[in-house]
Structure formats: C-alpha cells, structure tokens
Amino acid sequence: MTIGHAIFLFAAAVLGGAINAVAGGGSFVSFPALLFTGVTPVSANATNTLALWVGVTASGGAYRNRLTIARRVMFPLIAASTIGGLAGAFLLIRTPAQTFLKVLPWLLLGATLLFAFGKHFTKRISASISHDASNAAVAGAAAFELAVAVYGGYFGGGIGIMNLALLAALGMTDIHAMNALKVVLGGVINGVATITFVISGAIVWPQAAVMIFGAILGGYFAAHYAQKLPQTWIRSFVILVGSGMTMYFFIRAYL
Length: 255
Hints:
Elements: H1 3-22, H2 27-36, H3 41-60, H4 71-94, H5 98-121, H6 135-154, H7 159-169, H8 175-200, H9 205-226, H10 231-254
Helix pairs in contact: 1-2, 1-3, 1-9, 2-3, 3-8, 3-9, 4-6, 4-8, 5-7, 5-10, 6-7, 6-8, 7-8
C-alpha cells in the first residue's frame, strides 16, 4: 500500500463513516475505493465491513440518548440481525460477489422508494415500532430485518437505507430515533460478519487500519452534528444518497 493509497483510503473512510452515520450507504464510497487501490473484491468487502463497522459503533455514542425503543421490539430485531449477518458472511466467503451485485441495484431502488414514500403506505397502520407495537408487527419487522441482515453480511452497501426504509414503513417518524436504532442493527450485522471475516483471514490489515481511523472520525462527528439539522434536510439527504447508490450499481451491473 503506497502513501497515496493510504491517504485516498483514509478520505474515503471519513466520508463513508459520515454517510453511514447520517443516512446509510457509506460503502458506496469506501468499497469502490478499496477496489481502486487494487484490493480483490472479497477482501475489499471484508475490509470495508470491518472499517465501517467501527465507524458505525463510534457514531452510536452520539445517538445514545435517542434510543428509546422497547426491549420487546429491539431484541427480536437484534436476534434477526445476528443470525442474518452470520449467514450472509458465510455466503460471501463461499460464493462470488458478482451474482449478488446483479440483484443489489434492485434492492437499493426498492429501499429508497420505500423510505421516500413510506408515510403514504402507512396511514392505516395504527401500531408503530414502539411500546404498543403488536406481536404481528414485531414479527414482520424481524422477518424483514433477517433478510436485510443476510444481505448486509454478504455485501453491506445500503443496509442503513434498508433499515431506515423498514422503520419508516412501520410507522417511525423521528429520523434521529430511526438513526439510533439503525446504528444498533447495523453494528450487530457488521459485527458478526467482521468476526467471521477475521477468522477466515479475509481482512487486508494495513488498509483496514487506515480506514478504521477515518471511519471513526467521520462516523462520530457526522452523527453528532446531524442531530442539529432539520429532519427534512436529513430525509432529503437519505433519498439523495439512496438514489445515487441505485444509479451507480445499475450502471455497474448492467452497462
């Protein structure tokens, strides 16, 4: 790894960590950066997951006062995240990523549209992700989170947007509370995936060390200052990031 590559990866990790803390989708920046510097796809995926996981964990400190979700809701989501993250990581180690990259833009498109227009689909939903959420709502959320976690353990790009889409569709309206829960779920998914990647030897450690430092800086400071902005600004940024990721991966997969 050259000094130029190290500076480039550090900057990409700062930006990726900041995007993950605010909206999700930091892999849109950091994963291609690793590929550009010559890291192989599987190792780039594993290294990126490690770096951004640390950054997401750092951003969680800034959101700690926003996490007011009931335990009966949070625990099933965390369990689904753990199981799905492990399953996705094992899939990555054993299968090529190219096939999944064909599906990725469609998943991102659906998640972005769901987040943007979720309120129009939830007018008849009386229970939200709160203390009075029904058992059916919790079970449905856990099932969706399991699918997101499998995808997140396999590739990881856009799981924040997908989780925000899930929370929007199930009635949450406070973007900062949504971000707090998104950070927890993403941390679990990437955490169990990272352990799998470390054990399997898929991490490229020099690049990982540089990116971890950058992701911590970007993740914490973006999460802290994002809470001072109007919610409409943050929502618009989420939609912008999701649209950009969708177009990029459509072009990459089909053109």
